[in-house]
TrEMBL record, chain A:
Signal peptide: none
InterPro entries, per database record: Na/Glc_symporter_sf, Na/solute_symporter, Na/solute_symporter_VC_2705, Sodium:Solute_Symporter
PANTHER family attached to this UniProt entry: NA(+):SOLUTE SYMPORTER (SSF FAMILY), SODIUM/PROLINE SYMPORTER-RELATED
PROSITE patterns from the UniProt entry: NA_SOLUT_SYMP_3
Transmembrane segments: 6-25, 77-95, 116-134, 146-167, 179-198, 247-269, 281-302, 397-425, 446-463, 469-489, 501-519, 539-563
Chief site of localization: membrane
UniProt family annotation: Belongs to the sodium:solute symporter (SSF) (TC 2.A.21) family.
Organism: Chromohalobacter marismortui
Keyword S-adenosyl-L-methionine found: no
Protein known as: Cation/acetate symporter
Automatic annotation (TrEMBL), chain B:
Protein name: Putative solute:sodium symporter small subunit
Biological classification of the source: Bacteria, Pseudomonadati, Pseudomonadota, Gammaproteobacteria, Oceanospirillales
Family annotation (InterPro entries): Na_symporter_ssu
Sequence ranges assigned to domain Sodium symporter small subunit in this UniProt record: 9-84
Organism: Chromohalobacter marismortui
Pfam families: DUF4212 (PF13937)
Transmembrane parts of this sequence: 21-41, 53-73
Keyword annotations from UniProtKB, A to Z: Membrane, Transmembrane, Transmembrane helix
Length: 593, 86
């Protein structure tokens, strides 16, 4: 069977499964549509959160980012997992006790303000839309690479599948497809990782292999990798990072951003009890951890594999790394997987010194004494995961699995985000503000229509990505960190913060964060409109625009506190509401009122 | 009624204490061991590198998982102890 047929088979089978689940899990009420009926088991929910959370970026790009940055990039690993501790301890159980359908609804009720609710709706839509465009575009790219259709056709196929199970089943359909998608994506991610770990270290568990000895040289794997990359002018893989302030703030921004993202918080409304919300956060992190503990192993092993493929002299025991680093392979002798991926443009070669060999090294290092005139091989970060099966010589069905896994990661996250957007429109905007007397059936219909519109918009923007779509980390996490997380937390842990404080806090945190980002990345991300170049020398105290969300959050907390302090206490019934969310007793199911 | 209220207040205080303790550990492994204190821990070798690197790539994630389960388990006890469970 050809590779193409195998890919079609794997992707087709996984899609048939998702559609089958959608037909089985059709939503009959708004409660089904928004919170999957409220009866999801915490382990099931944990798995669904895992798929909801792990996007095309986690699946395809994260290992490549870590491989490129080494120690400098664990911010993603810690940031995207540490947020679950905040969710479990500070938000999820109480929001579950509150027992409503959406995040803006809590903000609106707790701060007895329609304005606060609308600010939250806008933040939610901007953050989620930025995020979902990337998923749709990622699904299109995965299609075009593995199934030989163009990206727009791929995007349309993906949109039809998501449309089918999310419009029909709402949260109920999405929950059970996410469980299936988690299983597909985790198998697809770990199988090649196990093989590559066995090959390099003899240890079948990649996270242990990462800290084991490299079989061919007898050295510890990471020590070996350090020697190899430094001989080629790169920073040592495990090198220290000087700008610790930025690293701390970046990690913190990702953590509180994670905890403030509505599509994740919403998943906690689907479990029956407050205690289940706590357990499902734990299970979610177990399921997420399986991939996040594998990713750094894949990163370092794939990077070592790549280097020793180009410089075979460095593969085994090496006396002199500098000498071994002078002898790359000839371009004509490159392995098949490089040939395959050159066709996609993700690997490019330019023979700068016309010697027919592939000089692959850090371009800012000077190796002119070796007759090298610049780095000749450009490797896109995404290659490391996508080409992993080929690099490790795995059978072609594993490649089919990677295709299905990448699509599962993109579609599951897209569906969760689309639900967050559509419920904010139908529940917060239509029922909450425009037509409070809408019937249950009318609202369900409105939810389905807004879901359809959200999919159409996301598909269109996925095919024609606007400039801001590339700024997921800055925009989605920055907004969630600076606006939503602080007010949610204060709404639970303080009885004193009032409507004025919350609105002032959200707006000042949000404005500060967006202005800082726009100054470096261009106003509304229009190229050329930035006031300062986006380089570390220009950053205030060395804080990157990607890390500013944490500072925005601190400003939000401070402003909300000061404004509340200088104005009246919240009314009696609001203080009682805060009391009631703090105690698990009497939660009952999520209700519609 | 007064008893009920002071009972609930005691429950909330115990919860906040527990959260504070857990968050100290949370910050210590991630911002501490993995980032700020890494130079101090550089003398402790782990698989070809140092303990700080291990915390950055694995240790903090494993601790986070442990923390959430510990908190969930401890809170179930508190819920029962104060008679506030569902």
């Amino acid at each position: 069977m050809s590779q193409f047929a195998i890919n079609i088979l794997f992707v087709g089978a996984s899609f048939a499964l998702y559609i089958g689940i959608a037909i089985w899990a059709k939503a009959g009420s708004t409660k089904d549509f928004y919170v999957a009926g409220g009866g999801v088991h915490p382990i099931t929910n944990g798995m669904a959160i895992g798929a909801d959370w792990m996007s095309a970026a986690s699946f395809i790009s994260m290992a490549g980012l870590i491989a490129a940055g080494g120690y400098a990039n664990p911010t993603f690993l810690m940031g995207w997992t540490g947020g679950y501790v905040l969710l479990a301890l500070l938000l999820a159980p109480y929001l579950r006790k509150f027992g409503k359908f959406t995040v803006p609804e809590f903000i609106g009720d707790r701060f007895y303000s329609r304005t606060a609710r609308m600010v939250a709706v806008v933040c939610l839509i901007v953050a989620s839309l930025t995020y979902v465009i990337g998923q749709m575009a990622g699904a299109g790219v995965a299609f075009s690479r593995f199934l030989e259709v163009d990206a727009t056709t791929g995007l349309l196929i993906a949109a039809v599948v998501v449309f089918f199970y999310s419009v029909l089943g709402g949260m109920k359909g999405i929950t059970y497809t996410q469980v299936a998608q988690y299983i597909v994506l985790i198998i697809a991610y770990t199988i090649p990782a196990v093989f590559i770990s066995l090959e390099l270290t003899g240890n079948p568990l990649p996270p242990l292999g990462l800290f084991s000895d490299h079989s061919a040289s007898g050295q510890p794997l990471l020590a070996k990798l350090n020697e190899v990359v430094t001989a080629l002018g790169f920073d040592a893989y495990t090198a220290m990072v000087d700008n610790k302030l930025n690293m701390v703030l970046f990690t913190l921004s990702l953590m509180i951003g994670t905890a403030g993202l509505p599509h994740v918080i919403m998943r906690f409304f689907t479990v029956p009890k407050v205690a289940d919300a706590r357990w499902s956060a734990g299970w979610a992190l177990v399921f997420i951890g399986l991939l996040y503990l594998t990713a750094p192993a894949v990163a370092s092993m794939a990077r070592l594999n790549l280097m020793t493929t180009i410089y075979p002299d460095m593969a085994g025991q090496v006396e002199n790394y500098d000498a071994a680093a002078t002898n790359p392979i000839a371009y004509s002798e490159r392995p098949d997987w490089i040939r395959t991926w050159e066709e996609t443009g993700l690997i490019t070669f330019e023979d700068k010194n016309n010697d027919g060999n592939i000089q692959f090294y850090n371009n800012s290092a000077d190796f002119s004494e070796r007759g090298w005139q610049g780095n000749e091989l450009t490797v896109n970060n995404d290659i490391l995961v996508l080409a992993n099966p080929e690099i490790a010589n795995l059978p072609s069905w594993v490649i089919g699995l990677i295709a299905a896994g990448g699509l599962a990661a993109a579609l599951s996250t897209a569906a969760g985000l689309l639900l967050a957007i559509s419920s904010a429109i139908s529940h917060d905007l239509i029922k909450g503000a425009i037509n409070p007397n809408i019937t249950e059936r009318g609202e369900l219909k409105a939810a389905r229509i807004s879901m359809s519109v959200a999919i159409l918009v996301a598909t269109y923007l996925g095919a024609n990505p606007p400039g801001f779509a590339a700024q997921v980390v800055a925009l989605a996490f920055g907004i969630a960190a600076a606006s939503l997380f602080p007010v949610l937390m204060m709404g639970i842990f303080s009885k004193r913060v009032n409507n004025k404080g919350a609105i002032a806090g959200m707006l000042s945190g949000l404005t500060f964060t967006l202005v800082y980002i726009f100054v470096y990345k261009g106003w509304f991300f229009i190229p050329g409109t930035n006031n300062l170049a986006d380089t570390p020398d220009n950053w205030v105290l060395g804080i990157s625009p990607l890390s500013i969300g944490a500072v925005g959050a601190i400003i939000n907390f401070a402003v909300a506190y000061l404004v509340s302090k200088s104005s009246e206490e919240p009314p009696r019934e609001i203080q009682e509401l805060v009391e009631s969310v703090r105690y698990p007793k009497g939660a009952g199911g999520a209700v519609n009122h | 009624m007064a008893d009920e209220k002071s009972n609930a207040e005691a429950y909330w205080k115990a919860n906040v204490r527990l959260i504070t303790g857990c968050l100290i550990v949370w910050a210590l492994v991630s911002y501490g061991c993995a980032i700020l204190l890494r130079p101090l821990l550089s003398g402790i070798p782990v698989g070809g590198t140092d303990l700080g690197f291990w915390f950055a790539q694995q240790g903090s994630i494993l601790t986070f998982i442990g923390l959430i389960f510990f908190y969930a388990w401890k809170m179930n006890q508190l819920d029962k102890q104060y008679g506030l469970e569902e």
